[in-house]
Design brief:
The chain has 368 residues and is α+β, with helices and mostly antiparallel strands. The protein has two domains: 4-229, Rossmann fold (3-Layer(aba) Sandwich); 237-366, OB fold (Dihydrolipoamide Acetyltransferase, E2P), CATH 2.40.50. 24% of the residues lie in helices and 33% in strands. The chain contains nine helices and 20 strands. A six-stranded mixed beta sheet has the order 6-7-8-3-9-10, with helices on both faces. A five-stranded antiparallel beta sheet has the order 13-12-11-14-20. It has a five-stranded antiparallel beta sheet with strand order 15-19-16-17-18, with no helix packed on it. Helix 2 (92-102) crosses helix 3 and helix 2 (92-102) runs parallel beside helix 4 (136-148). The model has no long low-confidence stretch (mean pLDDT 91).
């Protein structure tokens, strides 16, 4: 096991600056997930750590060693790719043993490591099979086993579950989490699926345009997003955003006028902003209550989705094209075409300035 330290890491392809001044510390034994939309640089960053791409500028340390110029085989990393990349003519045993044989390990060492890894991943009964005789989940476990058998200090995963169906992804998420608990290995995992990030990570790194947008625990990123981008990316359904205008502020918080809702008293600190500053109010679907319409606070329900244990109610936003979403437990009294008032839970409302940065909460609220 080992820590990974990135200091002002940059990657440039031609005229494209793909990774921009990334500073990051991955602790020994930590499970860190890189998450973000397609094209944000998360897979490129993983490949820089693995040594599959060269670093344009900055220092990458594994443990206490700068590894910028070391080839992948000397970095002590194992990588599991999106495609299983198994050799179809080889058995499961031979696929898992291949890297060890290339490293010229003794037959005894090869057998010991393959059998030990197969036991951890529950592949012992499958060692004689070839990949075509395996399910998707079994193939993914073999790909993981091939990386693990080399006993790397760090395991890297590049969207390993994206080719699996929904139920199998849930099963494999749990297997990977249990694997990390058993091994205590340092793991870095790339995904575009924020559900995978929330359920697996000790620490999440949200990337946007090649830059680190925010780093924190799943709880921190969900409850206290630092930017509007993070707030909108983390959480399903996504956070609701509504235009708002600052009405006034003092040491106790601020007052804003939210489009269609009216004036709200909120705890955010806004004393540094000009009067009537344009803001964005953010509220998650579970923190948005529906009530009888009152005055101008009148929104039309345009769709109701029943999901068994819960209901998503979609509302015309009045301003903008993105529907607002209310989430509640089933059964629901709400129907399409009905008009309702929106009542945000002011203890869970977020405010963002024109740059997209979150307004601060008082210290005791930030600690919550």
């Amino acid at each position: 096991m080992a820590s990974v330290t990135l200091e002002k890491i940059n990657k440039v392809f031609g005229r494209d600056h793909i990774i921009v001044d990334v500073d990051l510390e991955v602790g020994d034994g930590e499970f860190v997930v890189f998450v973000g939309p397609s094209g944000c640089g998360k897979s490129t960053l993983l490949r820089l750590i693995a040594g599959l791409e060269s670093i344009t500028d900055g220092d990458l340390r594994i443990g206490d060693t700068v590894v910028n110029d070391l080839p992948p085989r000397e970095r002590g990393v194992g990588m599991v790719f999106q495609s299983y990349a198994l050799y179809p003519h080889m058995t499961v045993y031979d696929n898992m043993a291949f890297g060890l044989k290339l490293a010229k390990e003794t037959d005894e060492t090869v057998n010991e490591r393959v059998m030990s890894t197969a036991k951890i991943l529950q592949l012992e009964e499958l060692l004689h099979r070839k990949p075509k005789a395996l399910s998707g989940g079994q193939r993914q476990r073999v790909a993981m086993g091939r990386a693990m058998a080399r006993e790397p200090r760090i395991l890297l995963f590049d969207e390993p579950l994206s080719n699996l169906d929904a139920s199998l992804r849930v099963q494999m998420r749990n297997e990977i989490a249990r694997l990390h608990n058993r091994l205590g290995s340092t793991m870095i995992y790339v995904t575009h699926d924020q559900v995978e990030a929330m359920t697996l990570a000790d620490k999440i790194v949200v990337l946007n345009g090649g830059r680190v947008e925010q780093v924190g625990s799943p709880h921190q990123l969900y409850q206290r997003p630092a930017t509007k981008f993070v707030a909108g990316f983390m959480g399903s359904p996504t956070m609701n955003f509504m235009p708002a205008q600052l009405q006034g502020s003092d040491a106790q918080g601020c007052r804003v006028n939210a489009a269609g809702i009216g004036e709200l008293a909120l705890p955010q600190e806004a004393q540094g902003l000009p009067s009537s500053a344009a803001l964005t109010l953010g509220v998650r679907p579970e923190h948005l209550r529906l009530a009888e319409p009152s005055g101008d606070n009148r929104f039309e329900i345009v769709n109701v989705e029943y999901l068994g244990n819960e209901v998503y109610v979609y509302l015309d936003p009045k301003e903008g094209d993105t529907l607002l979403i209310h989430r509640s437990e089933a059964p629901s009294q709400w129907v399409e075409g009905q008009h309702v008032a929106l009542v945000p839970d002011t203890h869970h409302v977020h405010l963002f300035d024109e740059s997209g940065a979150a307004l601060n909460l008082p210290d005791h609220r930030n600690a919550a």
